Amino acid sequence: MSDNWTEQHIPAQHGRVAIVTGANTGLGFETARMLAARGATVVLAVRDTAKGRQAAARITGDVTVQALDLTSLDSIRAGAADLRAAHPRIDLLINNAGVMYTPRQTTADGFELQFGTNHLGHFALTGLLLDRMLDVPGSRVVTVSSTGHRIRAAIHFDDLQWERSYSRIAAYGQAKLANLMFTYELQRRLAPHGTTIAVAAHPGVSNTELARNTPTALRLPVTWLAPLLTQNADMGALPTVRAATDPAVTGGQYYGPGNRGEIRGYPKLVTSSPDSHDQATQQRLWTVSEDLTGVTFPLHHTVR
Description:
Low-confidence stretches: 218-226
InterPro entries: NAD(P)-bd_dom_sf (IPR036291), SDR_fam (IPR002347)
Strand order of the largest sheet: 3-2-1-4-5-6-7-8
Shape: globular
Family: Belongs to the short-chain dehydrogenases/reductases (SDR) family.
Radius of gyration: 18 Å
GO molecular function, one term: oxidoreductase activity
Organism: Actinoplanes derwentensis
Number of helices: 8
Mean pLDDT: 92
Oligomer: single chain
Protein name: NAD(P)-dependent dehydrogenase, short-chain alcohol dehydrogenase family
CATH superfamily: NAD(P)-binding Rossmann-like Domain
């Protein structure tokens, strides 16, 4: 297989059900489009269903829309119930939706917006859908992280919701680090079951709406440099799609753009920060996430 893994390398997806969060725009839209083009039944799980329907109309294939607001545990539970009713089996769960560099805000449940949306919302959704995946050969949970997991990133257990002080960049770093820690801990818990795997991906620096909250001091330089330092959403989505479909992928791997700095390029296997592999922190984050969301996973604990 060529080193330049492209959309043409996606295996046939006929008979597979894929749920993509945040699929009405940007990376999520391109991920959904590619999977549908290869025959998957794709669900656009989105907060704004009107925008979701507009996006679905632009995709060729078997595509439906599901209301899902990751800032509300009530919405996540309702959306998961709808998905479970509609799909006895789920092959792919793509945890793609996210927010970046937002001013300090909270979700409906009082969580800091970036941590609540990017991590806790996807943690809850995965836990509520996982039993539809465990018996499905080749099923995968793919969670989208970011190179931002290296920037001022730590899990601040003493102030997870940034109530004492707030840095939008550090809060984003915490959320994206949590995405990776969730993936690695989920894979460890899935391994004894031998069917479903957990994988992570990141898009490099992609030209999407996600960057709309970039701090003012960075906005002008980013605008000037964007043509040199970013790639389009279709290229940015390729690491996620490779993580979801490449038969060579194994659980616990992490895919991103292959060029220097992982800013752009064709998707390759990449590495995450040493902090992301701290098992004690992963396990503590898992326990805290269960407590905050009230969602437990249908997995037996194993001795590690």
